[in-house]
Amino acid sequence: MRRNESRTGGRSLYPVYQQGTDHKLMRSGNFATHSSVHLSILVCCFFVIFLLSPPFSFAGNPSLTSDEQQYLLDHFKKFPNCTSKIDAVRIFVYNSSLHTEPMDKDKWKTILMLKKMISFNKNDTNARPHLTCGPRAKCMQYILSFLNIKSYLVQIYSDNRSSFLSHTFLNVYNQDTSGIEAQDPDYNLFYVNKKSKERLQVQHLILSNLSSVDPVFDNGKKIVTGWNDSNIILREQYFEAVMLWNAFVNGSSLLIINQDRFNPFVKKSDTNALIKGQDVNFLEWADIICRQNWGKPFFILLQ
Question: Is the Cα dihedral 277, 280, 286, 290 positive or negative?
Answer without folding.
Answer: negative
